[in-house]
Design goal:
heterodimer, A: about 375 residues, alpha/beta, Rossmann fold, 8-stranded mixed β-sheet, about 20% strand, B: about 180 residues, Pyruvate-ferredoxin Oxidoreductase, domain 3, 6-stranded mixed β-sheet, 6 helices, 6 strands
Chain lengths: ~375, ~180
């Protein structure tokens, strides 16, 4: 099975019933598969006129209470940014898949890249919450797609599944979990009557319950800063409370949201921080280096945003240097440098020619 | 490190190399119960342009899914042969379509010049299935997957209505591969 297929299967397992999109390489298989599967289970697939409209349709679908997703790449992800910001401020759960290809602009439609790490976090303007997950295998693509829906529902945020062309197109053998083994989280619905419902009230957990449109709860949804009723406001206190709450929602649950994988870190003297398909090369390089007696370990951020700062700081305390291979010009290397706080040397290993970073390239740097 | 066998299928877009890669990987992974990955690299064109598909077969988990030290290289165009033979390992198998690849590289390779397209045209009746003829030859020469596994994978992957044609192409390829091995 291919990574893109696993993404579609994971979405269906998580309860997806609405997909809107505009096909684009290398994400098209996701739309193709869902266009066949969704109608058969009573769901809806719609190819919109462009990516902006697709993202709008996903937001609308989520407001009536269904699990909704879109999938895109490169230029399409750029177009979706404004509505991702809308989903963030209006607190509408949704999943956006971006199978990264080479950029900027139309760039390299068929070739791999990891150039959208910063865009995934900051592509939409203003201080806004998003969660970004980066799978490194076909099996993990399935798991993280399910998790993306769960996080979106739990925290009422847009969640971005940041794949890359290699993970999206690689075919490998997977054993998918039985539906009974899959944990599904659904959004909290209001316990109060429609008359008493405040759609954006301050709750103890910072996550207001969400009513489905069409079930008697009538409320206002806007991209403008709003008060507890959902209507626009210019009151500084209310604006402050809204913006701090929607961002705090992610910060206070960092420990639940952040997931990292570790390999051979116990006695490591050199650290490698790698994610997505590059972590596959890094894993091989670590195994090869260990055979040559080099004490090296791998820290793999599975959650890219919020960035696992504490884990990297801890690694920086332990090792003499950290190597960060990635298919961009050092986007995560910068984050690692910040988290390392000068405690250790951070060495970027960058590549932007449409070819993956090979294990040998990483090994050569480890030996230097 | 355990067993790792690397195959690169190269040529131009539209020759069906990605399909062959998927069939080979599925045969190894699903029907022969080994581990296998298939990945690909191609240009933005629907037809033409350099295209390659890579299959890694192993008895352990495969992390890096790309070929770097190739056991078997299939080249259907002169351009792909010139570009990729450098990654072929010492003593590796080089299989080319002799109709399109006339210049073979120097090096310690096991070279097989086979008129693959011509065989598809004259013995199967459709040049379209040259990719599956090549798959038959590869199955014999590499010995890395079983014939039955590849047949099952072909049936699961090729378009409905073309099963017999593809199986015929595969068997013609197997026969050719067997003959080549006997000559060695």
């Amino acid at each position: 099975m291919q990574g893109n297929e696993a993404c579609a299967e994971g979405a269906l397992a998580a309860g997806l019933s609405f997909f809107a999109g505009y096909p684009i390489t290398p994400s098209s298989e996701i739309a193709e598969i869902l266009s066949q599967r969704l109608p058969r289970i009573g769901g809806r697939f719609i190819q919109m006129e462009d990516e902006i409209a697709s993202m709008g349709a996903v937001i609308g679908a989520s407001l009536v209470g269904v699990k909704a997703m879109t999938a895109t790449s490169g230029p399409g992800f750029s177009l979706k940014q404004e509505n991702i910001g809308y989903a963030a401020i209006a607190e509408i759960p949704c999943v956006i898949v971006n199978v990264m290809r080479g950029g900027p602009s139309t760039g390299l439609p068929t070739l791999p890249s990891q150039g959208d790490v910063m865009q995934a976090r900051w592509g939409s303007h203003g201080d806004h919450p998003v969660i970004v997950l980066a799978p490194y295998s076909v099996r993990e693509t399935f798991e993280l797609t399910v998790r993306a829906f769960n996080l979106a529902e739990q925290y009422r945020v847009p969640v971005i599944l940041l794949m890359d062309e290699i993970v999206g197109h690689v075919n490998e053998k997977v054993r998918l979990p039985h539906p009974s083994e899959i944990e599904i989280i659904d959004r909290q619905k209001p316990m109060v009557s429609p008359e008493d419902y405040l759609p954006y009230c301050q709750t103890e957990d910072d996550i207001p319950p969400m009513a489905n449109f069409g079930e008697g709860y009538r409320y206002h949804v806007t991209g403008l800063c709003h008060d507890e009723t959902g209507f626009p406001t210019n009151d500084p206190a209310k604006i402050n409370s809204l913006l701090r709450r929607i961002n705090r929602k992610i910060e206070r649950y960092r420990d639940d949201i952040i997931e990292v994988a570790e390999l051979e870190l116990g006695d490591a003297e050199i650290g490698v921080v790698a994610y997505g398909s590059t972590a596959r090369s890094a894993r091989r390089a670590v195994i090869m280096a260990r055979e040559e007696g080099i004490k090296v370990g791998l820290l793999r951020p599975v959650t890219l945003w919020p960035f696992p700062e504490e884990q990297v700081t801890k690694l920086a305390d332990q090792v003499k240097r950290i190597i960060v291979p990635e298919m961009n010009l050092g986007q995560v290397a910068q984050l690692v440098k910040c988290s390392a706080e000068g405690k250790t040397k951070v060495v970027p290993l960058t590549r932007v020619d449409g070819e993956p970073i090979s294990p040998q390239q990483i090994l050569d740097l480890l030996k230097k | 490190m355990g067993f790792r066998y690397e195959v690169r299928l190269s040529g131009s877009g539209g020759q069906g190399l990605i399909l062959v890669g998927k069939v080979l990987a599925e045969a190894a992974a699903i029907y022969d119960d080994k581990n296998a990955t298939q990945s690909q690299s191609y240009g933005p064109e629907a037809r033409g342009g350099a295209s390659r598909s890579e299959v890694i077969i192993s008895d352990e988990d495969i992390d890096y899914p790309k070929a770097t030290n190739i056991d078997l290289l299939l080249a259907l165009t002169q351009e792909s042969c010139d570009k990729y033979y450098k990654d072929l390992k010492d003593g590796g198998i080089l299989l080319v379509d002799s109709e399109y690849v006339t210049q073979l590289p120097r090096g310690n390779f096991r070279n097989y010049k086979v008129p693959i397209s011509e065989i598809a045209r004259s013995q199967v009746g459709k040049v379209l299935v040259a990719n599956i003829v090549a798959l038959g030859i590869i199955t014999e020469l590499s010995g890395v997957v079983s014939r039955e596994a590849v047949e099952s994978a072909i049936l699961s992957r090729v378009p409905k209505g073309t099963e017999e044609l593809n199986l015929k192409a595969f068997r013609v390829g197997l026969e050719k591969g067997k003959a080549l091995k006997e000559k060695d």
